[in-house]
Amino acid sequence: MDCVLVRVLMVITSMLALSYAKSVEYSRIINKGLPSLLPPNGDHEDLVINLPGQPKVDFRHYAGFVTVNEEKGRALFYWFFEASTQPEDKPLVLWLNGGPGCSSVGYGATQEIGPFLVNSNGSGLKFNPYAWNREANVLFLESPVGVGFSYTNTSTDFDNLGDDLTANDAYEFLNKWFLKFPAYRNHAFYVAGESYAGKYVPELAELIHDKNNNDNSSYIDLKGILMGNPETCDPEDWRGLVDYAWSHAVISDETHGLIRESCNFSSDNTWSNPECTKGVNEVLRQYKEIDIYSLYTSVCIANSTNASGSSMEVMFKSTSNMMPRIMGGYDPCLDDYARAYYNRPDVQIALHVSDGLNLRNWSICNSTLFSNWADSKPSVLPIYKKLIAAGLRIWVYSGDTDGRVPVLSTRYSLNALGLPITKPWTPWYHDQQVSGWYQEYKGLTFATFRGAGHAVPIFKPSSSLALFSYFLQSRSLPSSR
Fold first, then answer.
1. What is the full DSSP assignment across 166-229?
2. Which amino acids are annotated catalytic?
3. Quick check: helix, strand or coil at residue 308?
4. What is the 3 state secondary structure string of 443-478?
5. Alpha carbons 112 and 43: distance in angstroms, whole number
6. Peptide bond preceding 35: is omega within 30 degrees of 0, i.e. cis?
7. What angle do CA 429, 435, 438 make, to 5 degrees?
8. Tell me: the pLDDT tens digits for 23-70?
9. Would you tell me how many other CB atoms lie within 10 Å of the CB of residue 318?
10. What is the CA 430 to chain-centroid distance, rounded?
């Protein structure tokens, strides 16, 4: 039989099975007495049924597109997981990964904090016992357009991608998403993310805060923000990256001395100094030999095209006056598994991405978007001050074996705020062991994770879930066993 015909028959069979499974699932949900959290009639098609390789769970999850600009055809892809227990009583958390250009579905949802993790051959999913939907309803967003499955029908949109457009589209997404899921409109709301989302998260929070003050009809009950190994302030991030590399024996005393003498990272002319550029390029050259995101673990050898060397060439193709941004997570081998899984026709059908015939090309990071990023705020510290003054909860955490946005970068950035210390530096504990150290400031909490790399939940799933729980409860981390 013709291969195309076989594929068509397989797709039709899959779609019929999916339709039947959904009708059964709707009956099951309603019979359980939980209709209040269902989206309005007509939007039930976002319910995910028969996701290939999915372990059996008792909570519901939804996936699909939200159009954020009708005229230009911009649409963002989301994947939403209800809390595993009592979703009606728990907050809503939006998770964003950075890059810019990297997928929150590929990283956050299925490598870090989601209930399903892609297995080692991309053939299915395994259950994550430390998923953050144990504590909250969690919404993953592929943002901006060009990331993952999110798309635009107007090619010139890619000429204008940057921080501001990303924040505005994310805000539009939220308000339209609440039309699909009105029961969550009044839930306590938090924004969380890591790496370059260290800029996305406060920028979106500021926009929500400003809009709340001007338009009560679209009010979002924003309570706080949570950021891991976040890019925060370019000069301090650069200084921390260099000092961390030196203090962890990645570079020589001579290279460190050259950079200290020739680089002024606060100056717009930093990269016009050839000695500074020479020194920084030597830092990046040495980091190509190891995994910059996790200094003390092995690099991926299984597929040499995804080893740390090639990744670094994308990230650090040149020094410029814009901070190079995060392109990935901990294990580059995991990226291949995710790529294989999300490009499967049956997976795209289940996630309402395609009909199985017209597949969308999914990649975990969009290097073109990264290279052409047009708008990046050099510092979000002024936004921190604004949100602190508004009484919002701000927590920042840092894996202390990450060389890309190292703990020193974050400490330098937070020290620049000049906040009064309300609880001095002290260990915090999980399972009777020191999980890291933390310090509380007036309006902000900073915590480290001992032995964790860039994507902390990959390294420390149990303790990261514990920190998330304390954050939501606005409780201090445990400072005794």
1. HHHHHHHHHHHHHHH-GGGTTS-EEEEEETTHHHHHHHHHHHHHHHHHH-GGG---EEEEEEES
2. 195, 402, 454
3. helix
4. CEEEEEECCCCCCHHHHCHHHHHHHHHHHHHCCCCC
5. 28
6. no
7. 80
8. 444 444 444 444 445 544 334 679 999 899 999 999 999 999 999 999
9. 10
10. 24
